[in-house]
Design a protein that fits this description.
By secondary structure, the protein is α+β, with helices and mostly antiparallel strands. It is built from 4 helices and 7 strands.
Length: 136
């Protein structure tokens, strides 16, 4: 189970921070959906964030408003591009959790503009256990 996704679990939108080649962080609000313990988001092939993810899949994400103002603590993680049946699972999860936006409007806009829709799975980095405090 991907338990470190906790802060984002109740969010409909997260601020996804991807990194340019020079390491500069770029934040983008994206819709997120869950299917049991898996978290998904989608984008399109010509978006800058997908180009950054192609070069560096390391991300940081935090619950946010639709405009990208964070409402919770950030989590470091990784975005993995999905294909085939896994992408279908992500697509259905997004359509189920965001019926109008991700179920109708975004797929329609991608089709009309000739974009290829890409689905990603977010996984949180495993945080190492803190060392036990030493007694003085």
């Amino acid at each position: 189970m991907n338990g470190n996704l906790g802060p984002a679990r109740d969010a409909k939108t997260i601020l996804l921070t991807t990194y340019k080649r020079d390491g500069t962080p770029v934040g983008t609000p994206v819709s997120i959906a869950f299917d049991s313990d898996r978290a998904f988001f989608r984008s399109y092939d010509k978006a800058w964030k997908t180009r950054r993810l192609r070069n560096n899949p390391q991300v940081e994400f935090a619950p946010a408003t639709l405009r990208g103002k964070t409402t919770g603590p950030p989590v470091r993680g990784r975005a993995t591009l999905l294909a085939g049946q896994q992408a279908d699972i992500a697509s259905r999860a997004l359509a189920r959790h965001h019926r109008v936006l991700q179920g109708i409007l975004v797929p329609l806009a991608h089709r009309l503009r000739g974009y290829r829709t890409l689905h990603y799975e977010l996984t949180a980095d495993q945080v190492p256990a803190s060392p036990a405090p030493t007694a003085a």
